[in-house]
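Researcher: I'd like a structural prediction for the single chain below. Treat it as a standalone chain; there are no partners to consider.
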Amino acid sequence: MEAQAYPLTWPDTMPRTANKVASKFKTGLSAALKNVRSSLDLFAGDSGKKVANLVISSNVTLGMERPADPGVAVWFVWDGMQVCIAVDRYPKVEDNLQAIHHIVEARRTEMRHGGLHIVRATFRGFTALPAPKRRSWREVFEFVTSGPITADNVESAYRRLAKKAHPDAPGGSHDAMAELNQAKEQALKEIGA
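Model: Treating it as a single chain, here is the predicted structure.
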């Protein structure tokens, strides 16, 4: 599995929600995270099948609990299937997490009333292709040489590419900007800047 906790790894097979709707959830971020983990543990117990390789992916990071893209994708392996439950219906990360908790709880209800074969059939709809392979920061910044690269080189390439990648630019997107931000972070870390 190539899914990462940060930045958001969204499944290629799932369309994004353009118009967010307000939710009625009253759950905070830490409680929603706990609910998702707990419901997955209970689901594993109910089904007798282990939930493995859990990755809760979002754009939440230290200092940024309210990212521009509030989507959440929960990736895991169950009964030999790589599964991804991804929700971006709501404008808050915690509400999207709570929705995922309720989706897993619905699978538990299916397990109680319909059995394992019903849940397997339902999860086929959540079956995820492997997450897209991430490009190296050198590829993102279009650095073709393997020679020394300075923080100034990275910053210059970042500014040039951000003009194209920004979601407000024609052809830009949240995903392109997230990839560029991650590449900058990795580049500066690797070169020691």
